[in-house]
Amino acid sequence: MRQLVAAAFFGLAAALFLASLARVLPPGEWSAALLAPEPGDVSALLAHYTLFPRATTAIAAGAALALSGIILQIALDNPLAEPSTTGVSAGAVLALALFGTASMGGAAQSLIALAGGLTAAALTLGLASRVGMRPATVVIAGLVLGFAASAATTLIALFNHQWMRALFLWSSGSLRQNDWSAAAHLAPLVALSWIAAGLLAHTFALFALRDAGAAALGAKPHVIRLAALVLAAGLAALTTAEVGAIAFIGLAAPHLARGVGARTMTERLLWAPIFGAGLLWLTDETVKLIPLDLPTGAATGLLGAPLLMALAARMRRPSLAPLPASTPSGRVRPAWGVLLVACALALGAALFLDRTADGWGLAGPAQALDWRVARALAAFGAGAAIGVAGALLQRMTGNVMASPDMIGVSAGAALGFLVLLYAAPAAGAAAQLAAGGLGAGLAAFWALKGLARGAPPEQPLLLGIGLAAAFTGVVSFLLASGDPRMALAVVWLSGSTYLVDAQRALVILLVAAGGLLVALALARPLALLPLGPAARSAGLSVRQVQTLTLALASVLTAAATLVIGPLSFVGLVAPHAARGSGCRSPASLLAGSALIGGALLAAADWGGRVALFPYEIPAGIVAMLLGGTAALVALRRF
Amino acid sequence: MSGWTRRSVLGGALALAGAARAQAVGKRVVVLDWALTELALLLGVTPIAVAEAPYYRMRVATPDLPAEVADVGLRAQPNLALIASLKPDLIVRLRHYGPPQSRLEAIAPTLELAIYEADQRAYERATDALARMGEACGAADRTPIAMSRIDATLAHSRETLAPHFDRPVLIANFADDRRADVFGRGSLFQSALERVGLSNAYGGPTNMWGFATLGLDRLARFDGARLVALSPGPPAALAQSALWGALPAFRDVVVLPPVWVYGGLASMMRFATLLSDALGDDRAP
């Protein structure tokens, strides 16, 4: 089965590759073009410097990403881990935005990206090592760092939109080559790391026993974990430096390998890179057939997500058991007073504290009504809605990484919005809402269908991540297309209240309040979910509770996305912050997440309006920068 | 030949007169787009505020934007409260861009102009936009002056470029070291090339803004043409690569200073002038 599927991948990719070669050169000249092209022969030169290195790079990069992914999934004991979980790709992109000059290319670009990626990975691991390399901490530190870095990148891009094209092109993961350097760097790296991983397979197997079991056998779990993470992050950073940010391969390939029967640790480490290489090469050859200059990174999610779906039936069991989100330690009372004061402060500042051309001042009621009320309330409502959605998902899956963007609903909504912006630029706000709603609805339907067919609760998230990866790629592609209207998209995609009016603010406030009430009604059944499928509560089966939870989270996410854009960060961090302020029971977690999400976004909206006056920074970016920094500081004290 | 010279002298003189009257117009105008800012300045109308004004001075460069012109924030989302506090008589916006018309109308009468549209008639639309801007700003009498100044500049470039008429040019803006935007039908650069007598080596399909993004494999096939790259030109990593050195198409590339590729008539003039300056020094091939 494994051999057959792998052979199909490689056979198909090879056939497409040879066909593309045949369009440039007759078969008789192929070997000469590969080994020593005639200096005056343009076709042979192009084959030698672009076609051959591109295929080699695709194979090597695919294997490297898959190997990095499988090692992370094993070492972090989390089936949702992937190379970017360590913050590597966001760090690389930020480094290029900060220090790379526009369209530099070549070795200098790779070195800057490598330095950025490694710095991010070192920060993540440094933070996590303070608490004994606990997997959950590694994951959260990496994700938060990644969000903060990409917020900083977006901030830079806002002011340099047209000049950032090279960066967007790079970060959309294009495999176009103009020499052999990437292939020559990646191939030996993959070979060596693969051998190293193979030698470590028996040690990695100890992770299956969880830390306590491994320690009982005399192993040092945190040392092994650190070694594994350094290997995986190094692989990811070097690959990203050569080919840009290619998402999803590192997540999907290990699951594909498992889906077609790679079970033992050695088998998984052996087969994941093979599937990664085949998947990326096939994707790239398919992309080459499309006349648009579509980046391969955009297509990996589009191609990989349906593949995972096809294998869903074989993935009934979760690939790895999810972690308990956190262990309640004694009775802690939620700090309601602090949370309410924070909300009042955020809303008060947003409504009345003002910066104008003449400096700071207090806004009069008329001015507040004109320019502020709708935006502040919409920010609060959207933050609360997305906070509740995040809490629901983390509670349902028991996975600390779960966040609303993983259902694919915000990606679906944003994709609908973008497609309309591109296809019918003259369409009004109502049409934009409808297109976004349609996209969100399709994504939610997809997620719910997977769950209804008996997949583990994490599977819809896997598919959602695939959709989100495809979406991110498409966004980068559109941004890189040179369309100046995409500056608008950058703003909206970072979560901005700029276009909110009183009507939309009212809608999102009502949705958030209603959603919170329904969620509180689900709180008791949610508490029983970790007990397994046999548990029933209030006459609901586990499957029904899961479906209801996912549907509610989808509605909340879609509403918030439609009103002010995708806000994945708030949905991830609000529940963690709520847990940190003592909200341990499902009900208090939901209410606390709503308050924290609302306060964070209202404060961020105000900060974005006054910080660089008259330039308005989208609330989502400020939330990531502020919230991200706060979360990293909190992690250090964990 | 003498006809061209006479017109350029006349145009130059009239343009000077127009610039001297720049402050004569009393309307308080806020312009939210750079191509439209160019048009206003071409008419001798100085806006009270422009979106991303400091960046205009860096990237569009000409016509000069006076230092006293205020900045109202991002072009994609200008600061509405600030615009309202400036109490403008007129707001000028570009279609498909920035905040919706209704939001701006609530502050002041708003003129919506279009340049780059799906029908790829940028030159006609830019000319039309110039005339409508002139009317709305009370400077309608200066539209013909501005137009004859453009004609004169292009005619002058045409004289300089005459020795190069028989070699087509390929206008490219490198996006990174693996692909470039190549300008053709629908771009103001294409209109400029037609007016100065040069032929464009690229006749293929283009997008709304008149360019197509081509990979090196496609660029390498234009080996008879003169490659004209907009600043910053081909990235060093590409210019030093084995492939670049081996391909005849890339042998005598000319790099022009920055030109705003989504610009208006002033950017078109700037392009023609820079092109004739760069190629004029060159002996004909």
Structure description:
- The complex is a heterodimer of chains A (638) and B (285).
- Chain A is built from 25 helices and two strands.
- Chain A has 638 residues and is mainly alpha-helical.
- Chain A has two domains: 314 residues, ABC transporter involved in vitamin B12 uptake, BtuC, CATH 1.10.3470; 299 residues, ABC transporter involved in vitamin B12 uptake, BtuC (Orthogonal Bundle), CATH 1.10.3470.10.
- In chain A, helix 6 packs antiparallel against helix 25, helix 8 packs antiparallel against helix 12 and helix 23 packs parallel to helix 25.
- Chain B is built from twelve helices and ten strands.
- The two termini of chain B are 23 Å apart.
- By secondary structure, chain B is of the alpha/beta class.
- Chain B is globular, with a radius of gyration of 20 Å.
- Chain B folds into two domains: 113 residues, Nitrogenase molybdenum iron protein domain (Rossmann fold), CATH 3.40.50.1980; 118 residues, Rossmann fold.
- In chain B, helix 1 crosses helix 7, helix 7 runs parallel beside helix 12 and helix 8 packs across helix 12.
Secondary-structure blueprint of this entry?
The complex is a heterodimer of chains A (638) and B (285).
Chain A lengths: L1 H21 L7 H6 L6 H34 L12 H12 L6 H24 L5 H25 L5 H7 L9 H25 L4 H7 L4 H23 L5 H11 L5 H25 L6 H15 L25 H17 E4 L2 E4 L2 H33 L11 H15 L5 H24 L5 H23 L5 H8 L8 H20 L1 H6 L13 H23 L3 H13 L5 H25 L8 H18 L2
Antiparallel strand pairs in A: 1-2
Helix pairs in contact in A: 1-12, 3-8, 3-10, 3-11, 3-12, 4-5, 4-6, 5-6, 5-10, 6-25, 7-18, 8-10, 8-12, 11-12, 11-13, 12-13, 13-18, 14-15, 14-24, 15-20, 15-22, 15-23, 15-24, 16-17, 16-18, 16-22, 17-18, 17-22, 20-22, 20-24, 23-24, 23-25, 24-25
Chain B lengths: L1 H19 L8 E3 L2 H9 L6 E2 L2 H7 L10 E2 L8 H6 L4 E5 L6 H5 L4 E4 L8 H15 L6 H19 L7 E6 L4 E5 L4 H9 L14 E5 H4 L6 E5 L5 H4 L2 H5 L7 E3 L8 H16 L5
Parallel strand pairs in B: 1-2, 1-4, 2-3, 4-5, 6-9, 9-10
Antiparallel strand pairs in B: 6-7, 7-8
